[in-house]
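From the pipeline queue, job 12 of 40. The input is one protein chain; the requested action is below.

Action: predict structure.
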Amino acid sequence: MILVLTNYRTGSTNFCKYLAEQNNYTNCDELFHQLRNDQQEENINFLKNNSQTVVKVMPDQILNAKNSNLLELLVELSEKIYVLVRKDLYNQCKSYYVALQLENHWHDNFKSTKEITYNKDHWEHSMLFILDQQKKLIEIVKTLPNFELIHTHQIPDSVKYHRPVKWDVEPIQVDPNLANLSLDTQFEQLNIDINK
């Protein structure tokens, strides 16, 4: 199994598709999404019997899992672990905001421009959520025996999608003090320390 640990809005959906295609594996995507909590044992058993799979997991899906040992089980089953992170935090927060606003319409026609309405409270929620997930991801990564760090910009352009959006008001930039710009450096240091 190939395990992808990541935050939201990092290009992980297409990265997992890419990995599955390159390895001729089955892409299970977010097999442990919160909406599938009741199926966790069934899904774990599926992975035990199907090693040629790609699975991605977000920090909150691990920390809120019905099975408290989910991460340990996934690591044990993994032949390869990728940690996928996005350097441009501002655009990551914008992407999360847009995904929440579009909800079920996210996967509609990617060629048509979507009108996005700025709301200060919703924007702050999006920023804080992404930052919180990033910090939790770092804590999770510290427990891993080994992994390969991948940045979103390293994913081949041919597998990325670009949704055109038009904001009525451009959101405020992420506060550098709030964002803790050393987060990415922490990931890189962890990768060097663990994989040397």
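Job complete. Residues 131 and 179 are 6 Å apart (CA to CA).
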